[in-house]
Amino acid sequence: MTNSPNSKGRFGIHGGQYIPETLMGAVNELEEAYNHYKNDPDFLAELDDLEKKYAGRPSLLYYAENMTKDLGGAKVYLKREDLNHTGAHKINNVLGQALLAKRMGKTRLIAETGAGQHGVATATVAALFGMECVVYMGQVDMERQALNVYRMRLLGAEVRGVTSGTGTLKDAVSETFREWTRRISDTHYCLGSCMGPHPFPTMVRDFQSVISKEAREQILEDEGKLPAAVIACVGGGSNAIGSFYNFIDDKDVQLIGCEAAGRGIDTKETAATMNTGSLGIFHGMKSYFCQNEYGQIAPVYTISAGLDYPGVGPEHAALKDAGRAQYVPINDDEAVDAFEYLSRTEGIIPAIESAHAVAYAMKLAPTLPKDQSIIVTLSGRGDKDVAAIARYRGEDLHD
Amino acid sequence: MTETTTTQQGSRRSRIAEAFTAPDGSRRKAFIPFVTVGDPSIAFTEKVVPAMIDAGADLIELGVPFSDPTAEGPVIQEASNRALAAGTTTDDAFALVERLRKEHHIDTPIVFMTYANVLYSYGLERFAHRAAEVGLDGVILPDVPHEEKPEFDEPLAAEGLDLVSLIAPTSHERIHSIASDAKGFIYCVSSLGVTGVREEITSDVKGMIREVRAVTDVPAAIGFGISTPEQAATMAADSDGAIVGSAIVRIVGKYGEDALPYVTDYVRSLAEAVHGLN
User: Fold this and answer.
1) Contacts of B194 in chain A (CB under 8 A)
2) Which one of B64, B117, B139 would you mutate to disrupt binding with A, by most A Cβ within 10 Å of its Cβ?
3) What 3-state class would DSSP assign to A235?
4) pLDDT at A399
5) CA of B3: how far to CAs of B12, B156, B186, B210, in Å?
6) Residue A3: pLDDT band by 50, 70, 90 thresholds?
7) Are A20 and B193 an interchain contact pair (Cβ–Cβ within 8 Å)?
8) What is the rounded average pLDDT for all residues in chain B?
């Protein structure tokens, strides 16, 4: 591992374990179990088998020929995490964590969810493993993503609405941490992104790094050389860190994270943490956060429930500090345009989260020569977003 | 008074130990109430703190509101929201302590209970300096465990403030290392979960306190879940004091600006129950 955190889970100055004493035993137990099982051949073989036979890995690296011709520059490849079982990259992490939780003797999974993709993935794997599952979801998000709420219930999970704070992803994370402090002995918090206290950022990164492990091999096979850039959307940042990880040492490959700018980074209605936030400590980690001068976490806005988070994973913060990755803002209009563009051009409806990455690819590809390539991670599929996009375009359509 | 903190700088020392010390120098049981600064207004907090001290409070825990208090149950979350909605800032909390010291002549120890980001965003050294200047004695940070303590403890200690250590029912083998460099007092969390009133406290608090006492003379007070004088007396009997937060804040939430007599009577009943053990 080229970018391992130090003993206290630091990436540069970021990361750490800023959590209540009540949870320290649980995260230490988790760290110990993870350090053991990540090198355990039986564990790795079982995870690999589930990824292949249950989740449908490896995911395709698809050459988007129509898009490439239309944009007239670098070849655009789409890493099709949307084709995974449950329709997003989230299953990669959940399979790993649930398998670990099972090995640790836990019988109950709790999780936060924003758009509902991580909640659906957790509910799915809990059903598969016969584990109890409770998903915390902001009340606002439950309305935005009603179909995913029903999907989780169908899978046997209990969905608990969170009304505290802004009723969105950050509040769902807070409430899941609170639940974990109430009930630890049989419960694993299956955190959905590369954030929170150590060891979550490292563990989630490792489980998601399968994306770039495959993509690097696939692009070398198809193109015979590395891409000019890897582009992924960033909320907490798990699909992005998974997409970047095996390219970090390839210094000529640009790593580009696309943040949700909402109505624009010059407005207050934005979720672009890297572009508008400042250094802080929240949800167990030191990183960048949208906050006011007194450290009060700011309400954030984006059309995308999955990117609607006022912070970012600590490894991304360190990659930004080191200048190794850049983080660009994409606003709602650009994301919705990209959502529609990819649907029409390639017959692929991306998740509105992933559409943020597509939007930047549409800007970048025309500026690069035709003998170069870029990889865009399609972190999820857009079925869940169709009704919301229709409403954004003024149609009276509901789930 | 060996547990009183002195620093190399020696600029000042925390008053916290005094809360647990009788006039003859022996250890006494302390009652520690909590209110959130600015809930529902700064003016109310400025009235309720002296009233709680008159009613027998030995140490005052002031919550500095944070937008996302992950260790709190709904009662204190809502208090934090009310305080922030009223515009309360960290600077307001400092100014309040300054007035309590200078205008109300209060010399009872006062600690802040808040979250890491409130200090971090203010600047740790700047925070510690201002805290010492206004006469604050310590800080409780529920999201700063022992592993992350030095980052906060060093700047606070340099100004003579105590960073209060917390011990939870899950701490087990961690108790030794936490207690051995604890200062001020040790906050023993009675139960799993977040702050809030509980009908019964089932954790082995006696066992926790026994392990603490094996390591240090620093007083240990128990908080989380206490709402009746009987519970307060039981917890204080097993330790050096009882901390009550949510049950008081619930009264403030119910009566708002009119809560003063209700809070005062309630605090008196708790303080008497605790002091009855002395």
Assistant:
1) 178, 181-182
2) B117
3) coil
4) 64
5) 14, 16, 11, 18
6) very low
7) no
8) 94
ipTM of the complex: 0.95
For chain A positions 272-331, those within 8 Å of chain B (CB to CB) are 278-284, 286, 289, 291, 293-297
Q: In chain B, what residues touch A8 (CB-CB under 8 Å)? A: 147
Subunit contact B193:A18, Cβ cutoff 8 A: no
pLDDT band at A144 (very low <50, low <70, confident <90, very high): confident
pLDDT at residue B198 greater than cutoff 90: no
Q: B172-179 long-range contacts, Cβ below 8 Å, gap at least 24?
A: B172/A25, B174/A21, B174/A24, B174/A25, B174/B146, B175/B208, B175/B211, B175/B212, B175/B215, B176/B211, B176/B215, B177/B146, B178/A21, B178/B146, B179/B211, B179/B212, B179/B215, B179/B216, B179/B218
Residue pLDDT, tens place only, B105-158:
999 999 999 999 999 999 999 999 999 999 999 999 999 999 999 999 999 999
Are A180 and A267 contacting, i.e. CB atoms less than 8 angstroms apart? Answer: no
Q: What are phi and psi of B60, to 5 degrees?
A: -110, 130
- Identify whether the C-beta of residue A205 lies closer than 8 Å to the C-beta of residue A318: no
Residue carrying structure tokens 């403890």:
B153
Find residue A11's DSSP bridge partners. Answer: A14
Do the strands A373-378 and A229-234 form a parallel or antiparallel pair, or are they unpaired? parallel
Q: What percent of chain A has pLDDT over 90?
A: 92
Which among B148, B173, B195, B203 is the top mutation candidate for probing chain A, defined by the most A β-carbons within 10 Å of its own β-carbon?
B148
Q: Does B6 score more than 70 pLDDT?
A: no
Q: What is the pLDDT of residues A298-351, one digit of tens each?
A: 999 999 989 999 999 999 999 999 999 999 999 999 999 999 999 999 999 999
Cβ contact A21–B167 (<8 Å): yes
Has residue B268 got a pLDDT over 80?
A: yes
Contact present, B243 and B221 (Cβ < 8 Å): yes
Using only C-alpha atoms, chain A has a radius of gyration, in whole angstroms, of: 19
Tell me how close the Cα of B210 comes to any Cα of chain A, in angstroms: 18
Query: Nearest residue of A to residue B78 by CA position?
Result: A164
- In this prediction, residue A165 carries a pLDDT of 86
Q: Give CA separation, A97 vs A82, A193, A198, in Å.
A: 20, 12, 14
A278 contacts B174? CB cut-off 8 A: no
The pTM of the full predicted model, rounded to 2 decimals, is 0.95
For residue range A18-75, what is the model confidence (pLDDT) as tens digits?
A: 999 999 999 999 999 999 999 999 999 999 999 999 999 999 999 999 999 999 999 9
Cβ contact B117–A282 (<8 Å):
yes
pLDDT at A1: 37
CA A352 to chain B, closest CA, distance in angstroms equals 27
State whether residue A258 sits within 8 Å of chain B by CB. Answer: no
Give percent helix, percent strand, percent coil of chain B, each to the nearest 5: 45, 15, 40
- Check CB contact under 8 Å for B117 and A184: no
For the segment A92-116, what is each residue's pLDDT rounded down to a tens digit? 999 999 999 999 999 999 999 988 9
Tell me if B171 and A170 make a contact (CB, 8 A cut-off). Answer: no
Mutate to test the interface with B, among A23, A278, A296 (most CBs of B within 10 A): A296
For A25, the closest of B119, B122, B170 (CB atoms) is B170
